Amino acid sequence: MQNTSTTRRTFLAESAKTVLAVGAGMVATGSLLQSCGIFKKGQGSNMHTDFSQTELPYAYNGLERAIDVQTMEIHYTKHAAAYATNLREAAVAEGVDMKKPLEDVLEKISKYSAKMRNNAGGHYNHELFWKSLSPDGGGKPQGTLLKAIEQSFNSFDSFKTQMADAGKNRFGSGWAWLYVDKDKKLLIGSTPNQDNPLMNLSDIKGFPLLGLDVWEHAYYLRYQNRRADYINAWWSVVNWKYVQQRLDSQV
Ligand code: MN3
């Protein structure tokens, strides 16, 4: 464990340098967004995901104003942990090289089993979900992310309404997404179960910037049937800086 954790810290430090390097190009990106609304094809993603859970970046009670401590603990240590375990099982059974990014599997998910689809999606989506929330989150995004949102959805409030509606209207279990499509346009959509926009068999396709988990396991203990109340509170912990980093990795 010690070695894994040391390696991860080194990796994160390297990732942080990449983020800073990408950030330096932000001014040009901003003016491009303002002038034509299309993102430029960039230098690829620094957002690759591996096949094991990363440490939760805050305490289980860190998001208490939106998500209670028991829900966080069960969600992370039981639900998300099971996706990761089952993903690795499927990877062994189906000959997937776990040294490669999980994104490679998602992009060709139709080649694999239903077990791979459910658990590769489940693991990826939750890794994204934890990082896109923070005890210091909430408020509004800034910079190029805010500009892109306002340009794509008229206003930040209108964006929030559309994203919340995507979550509320997802029948049964699934996710609502803010994502960037191949033309670098910002879009909102939703997927059933543990599917996501990276999957080649998804109705919506692109790179996810922000994902909202609307499975009942994400909110039932505090909110029961009141999914809309959960979504409303969820905004208060969104880590816009991380969403900005994901956008920067794509432009
Ligand atoms: Mn979940």
Write out key terms for the chains shown.
three-stranded antiparallel beta sheet, 8% strand, disordered N terminus, Helix Hairpins, mainly alpha, binds manganese (III) ion, 2 domains, 251 residues
The gist of it:
The chain has a three-stranded antiparallel β-sheet with strand order 2-1-3. The longest helix is centred in the first third of the chain and has 25 residues, at 69-93.
Structural overview:
This protein has 251 residues and is mainly alpha-helical. 51% of the residues lie in helices and 8% in strands. The protein contains ten helices and three strands; from the N terminus they run αααααααβββααα. The protein has helices at 2-23, 26-36, 69-93, 102-107, 114-131, 143-153, 156-169, 220-223, 227-234, 240-248, and strands at 174-180, 186-192, 207-213. A three-stranded antiparallel sheet has the order 2-1-3. β1 (174-180) and β2 form a beta hairpin. The radius of gyration is 17 Å and the shape is globular. The protein starts with a helix and ends with a helix. Bound molecules: manganese (III) ion (MN3). Manganese (III) ion (MN3) binds next to α3.
